[in-house]
Amino acid sequence: ILREETLRSDLTPIKPLVEGKPAYWTWLIRLAERDAAMRALKASGVQCSKLHFPNHTYSGFGEAGAKLPGTEVLAREMLAIPCGWWIDPTDIPQLATAIRDAARAAQ
After folding, report:
1. How far apart are CA 5 and CA 90, in angstroms?
2. I need a labelling partner for 79 at 20 to 30 A (CA). Which of 24, 45, 61, 95 fits?
3. pLDDT tens digits, residue range 47-70?
């Protein structure tokens, strides 16, 4: 499993709620230059995605949808990195390096 100490200081893990019981299959991090980092990760063979999209932006909510600036910032910066039982522990150093390199390239 990836841990915070494997990341650069400019990557912020999104922590679960205290009372939450997460089912880890992706690890959510925030990165200001998310899209550039995502392209770099995919180019290095690491699958990643935006994963979640704010519901208030869908047309079903009409033009009078709520203004949710915090949600919009998170939606721009959130990146889902693979984690979980299917990742071989021997691949973690390479994955951590790819994440750090992608963040550096995105700056």
Report:
1. 17
2. 61
3. 999 988 888 877 777 666 678 888
Q: What is the DSSP track for the chain? A: ---GGGS-TT-EEPPPPTT-----SEEEEE-TTHHHHHHHHHHTT---B-----GGGSGGG-TT----HHHHHHHHHEEEEE-STTS-GGGHHHHHHHHHHHHHHH-
Instruction: Quote the radius of gyration of the chain (alpha carbons, Å).
Output: 15
Tokens of 93: 């150093």
Q: What is the pTM of this model?
A: 0.71
Please give the single-letter amino acid code of residue 87.
I
